[in-house]
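Open question from group meeting: does this chain pack into something compact, or does most of it stay loose? Before anyone orders reagents, we agreed to write out a predicted structure and look at it together. Recording both the input and the output here so the notebook holds the full record.
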Amino acid sequence: MAESTAVNDQITDSITQVNTKVLGDAPSIAMGNLFVATGQALSLAALNATNAQQQNNMTAQASTTMGITTLYSINTGTTGVSASDLFKLLVKKSS
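Structure tokens returned:
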């Protein structure tokens, strides 16, 4: 119990108990805040990883599309020249 003062002993004891409770709760509140911050950081890391994966897939799809388009354009030009040569041969044989 506290020393005798001009303040009522019950009030002094009540304030002392409240201060003790605040000090006792501080470690658990600090750990709770740490867990919340860690959970948010891990969630943000997972979100960033998912976003990076989606962007990578879009880039891969675009480059695949361009590669296939290039292959088809080269093949189409070759086919056009071959068909032209074939038509020329057919015209010569028929005349």
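Observations to bring back to the group:
Helices lie at 9-94.
The CA atoms of residues 43 and 89 lie 69 Å apart.
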